[in-house]
Amino acid sequence: xxxxxxxxxxxxxxxxxxxxxxxxxxxxxxxxxxxxxxxxxxxxxxxxxxxxxxxxxxxxxxxxxxxxxxxxxxxxxxxxxxxxxxxxxxxxxxxxxxxxxxxxxxxxxxxxxxxxxxxxxxxxxxxxxxxxxxxxxxxxxxxxxxxxxxxxxxxxxxxxxxxxxxxxxxxxxxxxxxxxxxxxxxxxxxxxxxxxxxxxxxxxxxxxxxxxxxxxxxxxxxxxxxxxxxxxxxxxxxxxxxxxxxxxxxxxxxxxxxxxxxxxxxxxxxxxxxxxxxxxxxxxxxxxxxxxxxxxxxxxxxxxxxxxxxxxxxxxxxxxxxxxxxxxxxxxxxxxxxxxxxxxxxxxxxxxxxxxxxxxxxxxxxxxxxxxxxxxxxxxxxxxxxxxxxxxxxxxxxxxxxxxxxxxxxxxxxxxxxxxxxxxxxxxxxxxxxxxxxxxxxxxxxxxxxxxxxxxxxxxxxxxxxxxxxxxxxxxxxxxxxxxxxxxxxxxxxxxxxxxxxxxxxxxxxxxxxxxxxxxxxxxxxxxxxxxxxxxxxxxxxxxxxxxxxxxxxxxxxxxxxxxxxxxxxxxxxxxxxxxxxxxxxxxxxxxxxxxxxxxxxxxxxxxxxxxxxxxxxxxxxxxxxxxxxxxxxxxxxxxxxxxxxxxxxxxxxxxxxxxxxxxxxxxxxxxxxxxxxxxxxxxxxxxxxxxxxxxxxxxxxxxxxxxxxxxxxxxxxxxxxxxxxxxxxxxxxxxxxxxxxxxxxxxxxxxxxxxxxxxxxxxxxxxxxxxxxxxxxxxxxxxxxxxxxxxxxxxxxxxxxxxxxxxxxxxxxxxxxxxxxxxxxxxxxxxxxxxxxxxxxxxxxxxxxxxxxxxxxxxxxxxxxxxxxxxxxxxxxxxxxxxxxxxxxxxxxxxxxxxxxxxxxxxxxxxxxxxxxxxxxxxxxxx
Length: 928
Ligand code: BGC
Hints:
- This protein is an alpha/beta fold.
- It has four domains: 3-224, Rossmann fold; 269-443, Immunoglobulins (Immunoglobulin-like, Sandwich), CATH 2.60.40; 459-552 and 573-588 and 621-792, Glycoside hydrolase, family 3, N-terminal domain (TIM Barrel), CATH 3.20.20; 802-927, Jelly Rolls (Sandwich).
- The protein has 21 helices and 46 strands.
- The strands form 13 sheets. A six-stranded mixed β-sheet has the order 1-6-5-4-2-3, sandwiched between helices. The chain has a six-stranded mixed β-sheet with strand order 38-45-40-43-36-46, with no helix packed on it.
- Mean pLDDT is 95; it is low at 919-923.
- The structure holds beta-D-glucopyranose.
- Beta-D-glucopyranose binds next to loops.
């Protein structure tokens, strides 16, 4: 199987069928279909921002894929090609609005083609079924909004759907979306009950169009299950009151996120439950055995395909713990398993197992008498088995009603960490009234720990500085026990440089990726340390040079497969592609919890449930590791909204952190598959994640035993790791002290000169940071590199210089000519540089960029069509900035210069290419 075929298979498996009356889908060979909606051609393959910026060589769309299936498999009698042409013509005149192309500028949806009665009626005369495709996007720096065209249908979509439903009795709606959206319209009488089938096909990467076409035609079948609850109203979600604001964002819903909330307090608010998804067939699910021994719950279930079509079913096991004094959700997902493909009539026995203690509750108040412990309170633990959270029956365990614990059991004793210091109230179940609990509020326990003392006690021993003893990094590759002796040789200035990652578009690694780190100065390189490279992520490799890579489906789709095995297979392909591109780690998977359906980056994350998210992350990481690469799990933690992402403070109870927001990270870390982790932009309980000691050291490193690398998010800010207070990007001392290792990112070639003026060295001098702490960070970086693909390749020179030998020797007559050293702007025509010598040339550029501080874009300077240098542009707040972008070797002659992949928003003012008195000794050279 190829990577593309695997992408298609996964994209099919994540499709969730919400409704299918009269078996409108799959289409039969006799069906002829009419496809409406612009997204039939303009397929949304991913969301926006860093996670959606893979350059693909193609994207499949629905209509072309249906036509292909018609021709190759005779899967359909026909597709309305006249209608398709009407859409194509209209799209030419009404092109996709990318909002100008800038960062986070694209609207959530596009204008729909207005439908005239005659177009629809004519189509309905000759076609038995209609498909209407609805598209939505969102992404980094842009949450969805409870507005038409985002959460709600747009007026254009509504009116198109009304027309379609008036003319067609059998309408199938396909949702090509990055996030869940309002679904109430399905039941709207304006559509006459003609919306018979609804499929959420998400955004399936480059193969998504083909995948949904194959499902509709019955060449594949849906087996996806929702990874989030679809509620009746956007305000039904318990985070609604506290979402999207700046400053303190109070997590008042506490552990009651998604179905945990709905099953406990508001089952009537659910439109489509968590775990729900139909199939083209039917299944019976029978529990054969259930037992409990030594903390393990074992459930055996027989699944039979009782219908007429092949399919797969997902069996889900939920626990209801006794309310006790802490209060519990009525349902918590404890295990799941998916069958293999079951032909009609066939069966499979699934064995599901979990540890009851994994679903213990964290007592952050001491109410049980066991403060800071995970406890199983006494009482009856009921177990439910089914195919979604609402459709799960209570089963008996060892012939009893459930698992009865006669007394409270302390499962784990921890120390208070990362708790809030701002008072607020959280929700809690009161008394059971029929099917739901009344809702009470209680004060959230506040922090009592002395962070300064805790940090002092944790200070590592320093390795005495030895100066250069001749140990080189390759010696450590051969014998890791030499690592401390190796570090002892590196002086504090070089160590301080090592914790600064450089990017984006560093020339020290594969150009076009997010950062280079490790051996990024000449002195570090002289010790033999290579530079590791990381790229976005999570759905494919982002290369801002425009180089192509494969694009996988979005995280939410992956979670909806409920199939960890297939995710591991998919990410094994991804890992191979990373190794081929000489990239060490993918910046993903993202495992933040879907706290609100409006979070713009939900598409990069998996689910509202930490167990499902954790399993998916482990599978992705395992696949990447298996291929010899790795992943960087992100964004640690409680990064639940894009609005004010760098300034908001998630105020959240320690219980909710530990049971919900950290849980998927914990599972992944404890699986042993995590080698690299990225902290988030936001603060948690007053401490920015990048400098949050309790988060990174107390919990991640000391409790979970994590010994891998930790990096910040790009241009993150830190505040004082003890006192909190305001944040800055200079406080690397607090970053290191908190247990973080790499600051991402300083400018290219900025590490050595400390271009942001960070306080690592001044804090060492002042005694507020110890050499041992700095050495610890370096050790984590070097340990990562030791296992990374870069250590298996020959050490390359610090920078690779491109050598262009394709010069025209005669003066060209078809464009303007700039002399070397002369400022020019290669726009609006053909431009040549006249290189007067065979020499090294320095390319510098002057540009400005408006917009949000974290907005990313790039402009590539091309020589004879090949990328030679890049102006990596984050916002300069409109101020003109000049950077040395690269050095290249040019022979004497004339070279065509152009700017490519320039994102709107960047204003390039001028380029200067001038010869330098650099002799290319010891330089890595590749010829173009
Ligand atoms: C995002 C990260 C991403 C990084 C590098 C940041 O803006 O939050 O998820 O990996 O940029 O592109």
